[in-house]
Please model this.
Amino acid sequence: MKESATLAVAAKAAALKAAGKPVIGFGVGEPDFDTPAPIREAAKRALDAGMTRYAPTPGDKAVREAVARKLQVENGIACKPEHVTLTAGAKHAIAMCMQTLLQFGAGDEVILPTPAWVSYKPLIELYGGRCVEVPSTVELGFRLDVAAIERAITPHTRAIILNSPSNPCGVVQPQQVMRELCDMLARHAHVTIVSDEIYEKLIYPEVQPDVVHVSPGADPRLAGRTITVNGMSKAFAMTGWRVGYIAAPGDEGRFAKEVIKLQGQLTNSIPTFIMPAVVEALTNGAASVEQMRKAFAARAQLTHRLLAAVPRLRNTPSSGAFYAFPCVRECMGLRTSAGRVIDSAQTFAEALLEESLVALVPGEDFGDCARSNIRVSFACSEQQITEGLGRLKAFVEALR
Model:
């Protein structure tokens, strides 16, 4: 396995900052907001109340009820508390889904529309599956190619991983595309849908007026074989809390029972005193989420406006999450002011960090189709966005 590209960039940027360099980081997908005070206070009260002992592996009754209620009301997913388990972040949730679904030596395949988050492919392969990439492009606005996905389905297809809003593309799949995808998947009863909805609350009608989030698990035809993954990290600014969750109501919760069995051998529950904070967030956190969402929407607009002004770059406006994913293909073959040849997204990112002190993530690890792209995370202040993308523009303009 390779190191996570996003974490590797963060480590390089941190080392330069520690050496006193004025690095601007667009690498890590982490909100720059503090966790809202009521959520923090709920955890403090739980600690003071002595909630420091073991809890049931999938979480206590109150937190599972809160997650199930959220999925029922907000997502239209027919889900009961016993179909839910709380995990050590959404990454842990995806890992356990793959470990439960896939069998070594069975030839299991998992379809992955790309560009896609850097950890999906390694996790598929780690647990014995073969990752089948189905690419999209900046020219298509990174929309899913439903016909191409259907052509990729074989008798060995075990699952498909979906992620909308998308990391790294920063796009929400249009309703029509999601309808076509669900219609197609309804014809292939052997395919399990793993829907990673970690960015669901970060969508921007300010950028794309008709944008909405669609949960495949709400479609009655797919409900029995859809595993919904979500968590608290992005929308609630709770990255360091490490809270994700899995909801799998199909077949009377059979998958949920199996993944909870696995979890009991791996991590057991998340920390007990965090559970009341999750309940508080899901029950009363909407206003705080909306405040942060509006800030991200403004940053999305600013980021696209500044990237659109950079020569040789092509960018799709971000309608969700907090990423832009511009194409730098027209920079290939050129030299930086320090004499370095740009021959890949990797060398572009390395040169930009070394020569202009701007950290972002090269596209190679997001899929074969993303080798000419870079990921810019705008989960930072507008001042940093303006300064950092100004340096990026100057860097590109100096290429010869």
Summary: The first helix runs from residue 5 to 18. The first strand starts at residue 24 and ends at 25. Residues 59 and 363 are 36 Å apart (CA to CA).
